[in-house]
Structures are given as structure tokens and as C-alpha cells.
Amino acid sequence: MWLATDFQQKVIHYYRQHGRKHLPWQGTKDPYRIWLSEIMLQQTQVTTVIPYYENFLQRFPTIIDLAEATSDEVMHLWSGLGYYSRARNLHQAAKMVVEEFNGHFPQNPAEIETLPGVGRSTAGAIAAFAFDEPSAILDGNVKRVLARCYGIDGWAGKSSVLKALWLRAEENTPKKDTAQYNQAMMDLGAVVCTRTKPKCNQCPLSEQCYALQHDQVAQLPGKKPKKTRPKRSVYWLICLENAQVILHKRPPSGIWGGLWCFPEMEQSVEEPIHEQKLDSFIHKFSHYDLEVQPLLVKKLPNTGIMEPNEFNHFALDFLLKKTQQKTAEIGLPTPVSKVLASLDSQSLKT
Ligand code: SF4
């Protein structure tokens, strides 16, 4: 069994030997500066953050200066750093500290967490770095180290996995030297136990690391499950008669509402009798994929056509002209125009 004290000692020893100690927000106990750095570092690299951090502090040296600024000014100084909700929350939180905490940054992690844009891990980091509170952190880097060291499988977005990670983070966080320990865990994740190609041979935790010992480094932490996009598979029935094609008008609401399309059948029903299969394709809607198999048919089947709203015969020439001119006389969805344009001379003779 891996004792928490042994884990802590190894981590703190690593910090003393190799930890990053000269970043602009280190060596201060000013909660405003620490908070600012923690917010800027969310989803952003250290090297990108440094100039923004320095400019920000030059313009807003105290939390009161920030609270009194206009939002335009705050957003302007944040421009280029991305994730702009962070800047809006920062400004709101500065006002809240001034109005609700009399300008004194709260010290307790639970109170810090009430500030807009501050989650449990950020609150823990501020409390530990600024006030030496023995509070645990669990940012993305720390999650990775713990998941690998203890073989905590599954995606951290899942509540049971997150709970297991927090439990381990709390158990391992020392009551003393918490700031050093937290900084070391962040550094280990950022520099040694990286997402790809971790430097296990330089890691102080390698001897007991579950992932390394069980050849699971690439598998841990578990990835976010990929959502499979729903797919609908349909036939489009292209019925050509005397160089005319049958289209039907979609009902006014729903996908392609009011546009003219080929009569459509679900592919789950029996394949209709057809003369020729044209190239199938997939059209991507925002929330699903439509797999289309166009079929040249002599006549439309009596059953199975979806939403048989209003049918009409159009001269293929007329439709092709519409397609090329992109006129709005009749509405054609782009995939329908493409299929029409692809009908070769062979089809026109039928
Ligand atoms: S031994 Fe390798 S996988 Fe395990 S914590 Fe260290 S760097 Fe990460």
C-alpha cells in the first residue's frame, strides 16, 4: 500500500529540487495576484500568460483598481488571451470582493469559491498559496498524475471518477507545506507526467506508479467518451420521365421545411426497385448525419415514401438552370442541387 506520507515526501522533495520557483506570481502572498494568475492559467500556457499578467497588474495594481475599471478596459487588456468569460467573471469577482468582503480577499476556500469563475480547485490553490490553508487542488495536471499513480480509470467528467480523484487529492494533501506540495503536483503534471510521452524516468513517483507498473500509462487517465452522432439513412428516389423529375415539397417546419427534395424513404424498409444506384454520400446537419443513397427509379413505389406532402414534375433542364443560377424561384437544398447536377446524359435519356 502506498502511504500518503510517502507520496507527499516524494512530491515535496521533487519541488525542492526541481520545482518552478521563479514565475512572476510566485514568491508573493498577495491573494489578488495569486487569484489573477490562477484564472489566467486556466486553459492557457504559462508563457502566454506572463505578458498579460504583467500588463494587467501594471494597469490594475490592486483588486480595488480592477473593481473600479470599466468592463471595456478589462476586456481590452484581456484581448487575445481567449475564454473571455474569465475576464467578465474576474471583473465581477473584484466588485464582489470590494462590496461584500470590504475589499479583503476571502481566506476560506468555501468563501473563495463563491466568487464568480472560481471553482473548488482554484479556491484550494488560492487558499493554499496565499493563506497557507491545507486545501487540496485538482486541476487537469493533478488529475492526470493521480489517475496514473493510483490507477483511477474512467473520464474525470464522470461524477464517480471525479469523486475518487478528489478523495485521493484530499487524502494526499499534507497539512504542512501545502503550498509547496500543491505547486509540485502542478509542476509534475505540467513538466513530467505530461499527457503524451511522460518522462517516467525522471518521475519521483515511478516506483509505485500504478500506470507505469501495469503498462497503463497511455490508457490513463480515461478519455472523454466520444459521442456517436446519430445517423439517418435514406434513399432518394430519382424518378425521371421525359426529361422531367419528380420532386416533393417538404412540410413547412422541420429540416429543409418548404424546400423541394427528391421523394425520400428510410433505408430500414425494403430497397425499392431501381434502375441504377448513384454515388451515396453523407450530409452533415448540426445534430445528425444524413446518409443518402440516390436511386434512379422508373416509378415511385406506392408505399414507404416519407412525408408525401406535395409532388410536382419539374423539367430537368429547368432545375439544372435553377441550380446553376442559384435563383430563388424554387428552393432546393444544396445536396439536392448537387445530385441534380450529377445526373449524367445517360440519366437524361431515360
Ligand atoms: S511514473 Fe510516469 S505515469 Fe507515473 S506519475 Fe510518473 S510520469 Fe506519470
From TrEMBL:
<dbReference type="GO" id="GO:0035485">
    <property type="term" value="F:adenine/guanine mispair binding"/>
</dbReference>
<dbReference type="GO" id="GO:0006298">
    <property type="term" value="P:mismatch repair"/>
</dbReference>
<dbReference type="GO" id="GO:0032357">
    <property type="term" value="F:oxidized purine DNA binding"/>
</dbReference>
<dbReference type="InterPro" id="IPR005760">
    <property type="entry name" value="A/G_AdeGlyc_MutY"/>
</dbReference>
<dbReference type="Pfam" id="PF00730">
    <property type="entry name" value="HhH-GPD"/>
</dbReference>
<keyword id="KW-0326">Glycosidase</keyword>
<dbReference type="InterPro" id="IPR003265">
    <property type="entry name" value="HhH-GPD_domain"/>
</dbReference>
<dbReference type="GO" id="GO:0034039">
    <property type="term" value="F:8-oxo-7,8-dihydroguanine DNA N-glycosylase activity"/>
</dbReference>
<keyword id="KW-0479">Metal-binding</keyword>
<feature type="domain" description="HhH-GPD">
    <location>
        <begin position="40"/>
        <end position="191"/>
    </location>
</feature>
<keyword id="KW-0411">Iron-sulfur</keyword>
<keyword id="KW-0378">Hydrolase</keyword>
<dbReference type="GO" id="GO:0051539">
    <property type="term" value="F:4 iron, 4 sulfur cluster binding"/>
</dbReference>
<comment type="similarity">
    <text>Belongs to the Nth/MutY family.</text>
</comment>
<dbReference type="Pfam" id="PF14815">
    <property type="entry name" value="NUDIX_4"/>
</dbReference>
<dbReference type="InterPro" id="IPR000445">
    <property type="entry name" value="HhH_motif"/>
</dbReference>
<keyword id="KW-0234">DNA repair</keyword>
<dbReference type="GO" id="GO:0046872">
    <property type="term" value="F:metal ion binding"/>
</dbReference>
<dbReference type="InterPro" id="IPR011257">
    <property type="entry name" value="DNA_glycosylase"/>
</dbReference>
<keyword id="KW-0004">4Fe-4S</keyword>
<dbReference type="InterPro" id="IPR023170">
    <property type="entry name" value="HhH_base_excis_C"/>
</dbReference>
<comment type="function">
    <text>Adenine glycosylase active on G-A mispairs. MutY also corrects error-prone DNA synthesis past GO lesions which are due to the oxidatively damaged form of guanine: 7,8-dihydro-8-oxoguanine (8-oxo-dGTP).</text>
</comment>
<dbReference type="InterPro" id="IPR004035">
    <property type="entry name" value="Endouclease-III_FeS-bd_BS"/>
</dbReference>
<keyword id="KW-0227">DNA damage</keyword>
<dbReference type="InterPro" id="IPR003651">
    <property type="entry name" value="Endonuclease3_FeS-loop_motif"/>
</dbReference>
<dbReference type="Pfam" id="PF00633">
    <property type="entry name" value="HHH"/>
</dbReference>
<protein>
    <recommendedName>
        <fullName>Adenine DNA glycosylase</fullName>
        <ecNumber>3.2.2.31</ecNumber>
    </recommendedName>
</protein>
<dbReference type="GO" id="GO:0000701">
    <property type="term" value="F:purine-specific mismatch base pair DNA N-glycosylase activity"/>
</dbReference>
<dbReference type="InterPro" id="IPR029119">
    <property type="entry name" value="MutY_C"/>
</dbReference>
<dbReference type="GO" id="GO:0006284">
    <property type="term" value="P:base-excision repair"/>
</dbReference>
<dbReference type="InterPro" id="IPR044298">
    <property type="entry name" value="MIG/MutY"/>
</dbReference>
<keyword id="KW-0408">Iron</keyword>
<dbReference type="InterPro" id="IPR015797">
    <property type="entry name" value="NUDIX_hydrolase-like_dom_sf"/>
</dbReference>
<dbReference type="InterPro" id="IPR004036">
    <property type="entry name" value="Endonuclease-III-like_CS2"/>
</dbReference>
